[in-house]
Amino acid sequence: MKRKEDARMITGMGTYTDDIKFPDMMYAAFLRSPYAHARIRSVKTEKAKELPGVVEVLTGNDLKDKMSPIPTAWNLPNADLKHTPYYSIAFDKARYVGDPVAVVVARSPYIARDAIELIDVDYEILAAVSNQEDAVKEGSPRLYEGIENNVALNWKFAGGDESVFDQADVIIKERLRNQRLQPSAMETRSAIAKYEQGKDETTIWMTSQNPHVHRYLFSSVLGIPENKLRVISPDVGGAFGSKIACYGPEVVLIYLSRKLKAPVKWTEDRRENYLSTTHGRDHVHYVEMAAKKDGTILGVRVKVYSNLGGWISTVAPGVATVLSVLMYSAQYKMQAVQCEVIGVLTNTMAVDAYRGAGRPEATFIVERMVDNLARKLEMDPAELRRKNYIKKEEFPFATVTGTLYDSGDYHTALEKALDLIDYRKQVAENKKLRKEGKLVGTGIGSYVEMSGAGPSKIVRATGYGLGLWESATVRVHPTGKVSVLTGGHPHGQGEDTTFAQLVSDELQAPYEDIELVHGDTAIIPFGMGTYASRTTPIAGGAIALACRKVLKKATVIAAHMLNTTPDNIVYDNGEFYSEGNPTEKRKLSDIAYSAYGAGFDQLPEGMEPGLEETTFYDPENFVFPFGTHVCNVEIDPETFQVKIKRYVAVDDCGPQLNPMIVEGQIHGGIVQGLAQALYEESIYDESGNLITASLADYAVPTAVEVPRFETASTFTPSPHNPIGAKGVGEAGTIAAAPALVNAVIDALSEYGISNIDMPLKPENIWKAVRAAKS
Questions:
Q1: For residue 362, what is the DSSP state?
Q2: DSSP for 493-511?
Q3: Which of 3, 52, 471, 537 could be stapled to 527 by a disulfide with Cβ–Cβ 3.0 to 4.6 Å?
Q4: CB atoms inside a 10 Å sphere around CB 645
């Protein structure tokens, strides 16, 4: 089956924000600070205003009273959370390279960019700090008055029996780092704001993963009623979490359009994207794992230094805390989990959700420690996992972190992956090749992921500002064609296809007759968007429930038309008939035509016309996909280049609506996980300059670097949503990095190396080997 999206995407018929044009459209450009930390003494704009074609020039001082600071959406309780005033344009201090200090509006984008060069800013350059462990030290540069040692949150968690750490036979310790990453979506951020004076309404077209949430935040910041704001997110060319957050430039565009009574567009270039769109990861973990000498894992204790960047972004407080720590028990029957998360402000771009958002970080540290424990106890890493996994018959399983795992079969996924790679033979082969001087290794990365965000009663209890239910409207038109309105918003996941298949199955309607509508707050019911592997289980769940409500009404109408009762109606292959008279049938299109008023006698007494239903679905719990990835590597002993020889992935996301799309998501996720393990790292120098501010400097892997993947699945439905699905968008990313790093550490086992910080570039491996030899 071909994807519905592909024809227009492949032929260039998609519509992205920057494709949209209006008569008399103006263009914005932002002057950004070249310094990571500087007091803004003055901003002189006269020369810029004199440039022909320039319409407006505004500074932070011009705007600070016109709009509120942008809030964080996650007010984490019991975290001593210090709120940072994030203004759309800085007026007192620049706190990272790229912080906006002025905006120009001109009649062409080129004039706007020329004009920002004419703005004269008098900066008082201040000392900067980009590393979170340095930022908490006494005497480090302070970003905000009143926030001591730059610590913006301190959150502690204790679950289970802490005495197990005293009873343990073995406690291993390691410092593990999830380096900072830069989301590299094909499409950078872009927005156009257009004010309609007669209606006093503003529409903003923008690259958004969650249009309704953006409208809610814009309304709050600008003091504009929500019904006077419309957010349209057309085709979006990828996001990976970076288009969840609320940013200053989009807020400023809305203000400018209303002020100038004209459409205003802004599209960032790649350098601007890397400087000023949220980054991901950047956690330093100090980890202890306690165990018995027979290999029973007792618990983990973790201290995390989380780099928040220059301010606390939209969902940032939850990433290193709730989304990560609740998964520290992973697939294992641990008896205790303890953690302290220290969120630190630095002179860098803000850090927020990035594909997996907390779950990859948790899985990485646990899976790395499991391998280190196996090595300490001289056990096979696969056997250690088998011994400690939660068993299939123990589900639903309540973990010591307070999560309730829905369903799982971790042993089967592990065995399937090991069989695919012929694990026993591979381990024996590794030993043989090492005797010949080759550096070869095999690594396992198992995971379980809390996804399907999520149950409102749980997320609200953690301080999140909104519930995370999802909406769906299913409308059967008089012709029998079907429109599906969803609060989810695809940006590469193939939801036009998967949801059409879901509706086709639910309504027994032709796949080609189904259309998905999304991304417009004026058309679709309030929805929460696409992220956190939530769209299939939550948005899909809402769609399924709406379909079932449609069929329930259609069944009543069919019964009326066939002179019988609803409980006698059979619906099969798109046709209704009575059990007592299977020859007289009505198609769904017949029912729909009658529902829209072919005659009053066509509807039961008192029934409203139309065949359309809306559902707001709030799940009772999260869903928990899982899997095991296994990687074989060989390291060149002279260049220390890592070559992936084989990569096997077995994932379980429950029932698969479209196996092809599931495999595509797994492939993409694996690439991003391997990219973190081997190539990508966001680097700031001592002055706070972003060194990796272009695709020439930031090493995104190409098809040349990507190995062939061997994939397989197991199928364990979730009881937590109407369709049993678990979500798959982040799975590959979560498992890949620990599988690869474990393989590399295994290959270097003769040197006694227990850790090398990612990315495992040749120079980093060489340094580790040299240190081990010395």
A1: H
A2: S-HHHHHHHHHHHHHT--G
A3: 471
A4: 15
- Strand order from edge to edge, sheet including 642-652: 439-448, 626-635, 642-652, 710-713
The upper half-sphere exposure of residue 102, i.e. CA atoms within 13 Å in the direction of its Cβ, equals 26
Give yes or no for residue 601 having a pLDDT over 90. Answer: no
H/E run at residue 233: none
> Per-residue confidence at 2, pLDDT binned at 50, 70, 90?
confident
pLDDT tens digits along 110-122: 999 999 999 999 9
What pLDDT sits at residue 598? 66
Instruction: Give the distance from CA 539 to its chain's centroid.
Output: 15
Cα–Cα dist 651/673, whole Å: 15
Residue type, 369: M
b/e burial code for range 172-201 (CB count within 10 A of at least 16 → b): beeebbbbbbbbbbebbbbbbbbbeeeeeb
Q: 607-625, pLDDT tens digit by residue?
A: 999 999 999 999 999 999 9
- Distance (Å, whole) CA 367 – CA 626: 13
- As beta bridge partners, residue 102 has 31, 59
CATH code for residues 6-126+189-267: 3.90.1170.50
CATH no. for 469-617: 3.30.365.10
pLDDT of residue 599: 65
Task: Please tell me the distance from the alpha carbon of residue 495 to that of residue 46, in angstroms, as a whole number.
Answer: 49
d(CA 481, CA 512): 9
pLDDT of 359 > 80? The answer is: yes
Q: Please report which helix (H) or strand (E) contains residue 486, including its range.
A: strand 482-486
Q: Using alpha carbons only, what angle is made at residue 641 by residues 639 and 645, rounded to the nearest 5 degrees?
A: 135
Which residues are registered as beta bridge partners of 288?
Answer: 173, 301
- Separation between Cα atoms, residue 535 and residue 621, nearest integer Å: 15
Q: CB neighbours (10 Å) of residue 50?
A: 11
Compute the distance between CA of residue 216 and CA of residue 528 in angstroms, rounded to an integer: 11
Flag whether the pTM goes above 0.90.
yes
Domains 6-126+189-267 and 469-617 agree in fold: no
Q: How far apart are CA 93 and CA 67, in angstroms?
A: 17
When pLDDT is cut at 50, 70 and 90, the band that residue 740 belongs to is: very high
Three-state secondary structure string covering 34-101:
CCCCEEEEEEECHHHHHCCCEEEEEEHHHHCCCCCCECCCECCCCCCCCCCCECCCCCCEECCCCCEE
Q: Which fold has domain 374-451+622-773?
A: Aldehyde Oxidoreductase; domain 4 (3.30.365)
Confidence of residue 658 (pLDDT cuts 50, 70, 90): very high
Tens-place pLDDT, residues 447-494: 999 999 889 999 999 999 999 999 999 999 999 999 999 999 999 999
Report yes or no: 266 and 104 within 8 Å, Cβ to Cβ. Answer: no
> According to the model, what pLDDT value does residue 1 have?
81
Cis peptide before 619 (omega within 30 of 0): no
> What pLDDT does 602 receive?
81
Domain coordinates of the chain in residue numbers? 6-126+189-267, 374-451+622-773, 469-617
What is the rounded average pLDDT for all residues in the chain? 97
For 306, the token pair is: 């989380």
**Token digits of residue 228:** 């006077």
Residue with tokens 């771009």: 349
Q: What is the pLDDT of residues 311-326, one digit of tens each?
A: 999 999 999 999 999 9
- Asked if 338 and 158 count as a contact pair (C-beta separation under 8 A), the reply is yes
Measured between alpha carbons, how far is 757 from 771 in angstroms, rounded to an integer? 14
Q: Which two tokens stand for residue 469?
A: 């239910």
* Residue 279 β-bridge partners: 351
> Which residue type is seen at 599?
G
Distance CA 676, CA 680 (A): 5
Q: Please give the backbone phi and psi of residue 382, each rounded to the nearest 5 degrees, phi first.
A: -70, -40
